[in-house]
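Folded chain entry —
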Amino acid sequence: MPNIMEIQDVSKIYGPLKALQNITLDIPPGQWLAVLGPSGSGKTTLMNIMGCLDTPSLGEVNLDGVKLSGLSPSGLTALRREAIGLIFQQFHLISYLTALENVMVAQYYHSMVDEAEALEALARVGLAERARHLPRQLSGGEQQRVCIARALINHPKLILADEPTGNLDEANEGLVMEILHGLHNAGATIVTVTHAPEVARHAERVIVLEHGKLVTDEYQAHPSHRPAGDNGRAEGLGGAAAGGPGGGFGTGGPVAEVDGADGFGAEGPGADGAAAVSSGALDTAEEGGSPEAGA
């Protein structure tokens, strides 16, 4: 089966700064890859290139058989909308829309809205009872789960998660990782960008970046995870989100709620700034701007 993504000898150069240097990487379908590195290592720059949010200075990137260098900016946006689900550390929810409406925005720019499917998506991440709440009425963990539901609603070929637990406490971090494990078990292709080894160890493959260079590429014999079905919470989160037919994320039970445990209060990060929804629909910020290239 062809690779979902092929990165060949990619560099990103900003004047005298080489943010990425000669990166070569293939990602087959169904793989969970973690990109690990400290601040300034180039991991976010790599994620932005993978997510069609930026282009390389040198080298080639192919996504689902499409060569990115041959696409216009509007073509990159269209491909991102069709093929990629983005999960951001800062959530980037639209402050004046409910959780349900934030998910439906991604549907709107992809094809057509389906409220029942959007409600099902929120139920799969344990937010059925919070669907009509605004971002400021949700905890940080709940906002991140809305972001996950939004990223998966259009059944992307590739899920890119940038520090998905970076703003969460331990309880909500575990909940988000359970969701990702359920998706991976159902066949989803996932790339997690993180500075935290304890997050990277959940993936089956880990690459390490230092100063823009790929220094380690290793497969883990025993990735850290909870088996699907543990406490009835991880199973069935894949389904259509992993490329299968039908709506929602599969047929398993919803994820249990963990409310208000992350200490961000009612406003929470991302309550006031809307940016680049995971379908690629919104590429400008209401107040905060789109994700930055670099770190």
